[in-house]
Amino acid sequence: MFRKSAFLFAAALMLAPLVAQAQDAKPNDAQIAHIAYTAGALDIAAGKQAIAKTSNPKVKSFAEEMVRDHQAVNDKALALVKKLNVTPADNPTSQALTKAAEAKRAELDKLSGAAFDRAYIENEVAYHKTVNGALKDTLIPDSQNAELKALLQQGLTLFTAHQMHAEEIAKSMAK
C-alpha cells in the first residue's frame, strides 16, 4: 500500500513538468525558480511533519537534515531572485506539486509509528528521484540564467545525496 502511494505521488510529480512544458514549450527562469522553491518548501513541510510524528532517531535525523538543507537552498534561491530582480512565477507544475504534497501529507498524518516512518522514508526516496530527474532533465537544461543554473546544479548534487541517504534508511527499515 505504501509503495503504491509513493509510486502514485512520484508519478504525479513526473507528469507535472510535462504540464508546464505543454503550455509554454519550456518553462522560463521565473517559472523554474518557482518550481524549485516550491519543491524545497514542500520537502521542508514534510520534514517538519516527520519531526513532529516520529520517534525513530534515524528518521528524525533525516527529517531535520531535509528541513535544514532545503531551507538553506531556498534561502539562496530567494537571495538570487532578489539580486536578479526576478519574480518567481506560479505555474501549473508548482500547483501540481503542491496539490500532490498536500494529499501525501494528509495520508501520512493518518499514520503513526513504524508505518509512518516507512511511508515517510519511501515517499522521500520517490520525491527525491522525481525532483532530481526534473532538475537534470528539465529545470537545469531549460534555465537561461547562469547563476540560476549553477544554483540548480548545486541543489541536484545535494538532493542526490538526500536520495541516497533516504534509500539507505529505507533498506535498514526493510531488514
Q: Which helices and strands occur, and which strands form pairs?
A:
Blueprint lengths: L1 H23 L4 H25 L3 H28 L7 H18 L3 H30 L3 H29 L1
Helix pairs in contact: 1-4, 1-5, 2-3, 2-4, 2-5, 3-6, 5-6
What's the short version?
With 175 residues, this protein is mostly helical. The chain has a single domain, classed as Up-down Bundle (Ferritin), CATH 1.20.1260.
What does this structure look like?
This protein is mainly alpha-helical. It has a single domain, classed as Ferritin (Up-down Bundle), CATH 1.20.1260. It is built from six helices and no strands. The longest helix is centred in the C-terminal third of the chain and has 30 residues, at 113-142. The radius of gyration is 16 Å and the shape is elongated. The model is unreliable at 4-8 and 17-23 (pLDDT under 50).
Number of strands: 0
> Can you write the helix and strand succession as a string?
HHHHHH
**Might you state the CATH topology name?**
Ferritin
Summed up, the helix count is 6
Q: Can you name the CATH architecture?
A: Up-down Bundle
Instruction: Please describe the biggest sheet, giving its number of strands, its sense, and whether it closes into a barrel.
Output: none
CATH homolog superfamily: Ferritin, core subunit, four-helix bundle
* Helix content percent band: over 70%
Give the DSSP E fraction (strand runs of 2 or more residues): under 5%
Contiguous low-pLDDT stretches (5 residues minimum) are 4-8, 17-23
Estimated radius of gyration: 16 Å
CATH classification class: Mainly Alpha
How far the N terminus sits from the C terminus, by CA atoms, comes to 18 Å
What's the number of domains?
1
Structural class: mainly alpha
Large-scale geometry = elongated
Mean pLDDT: 90
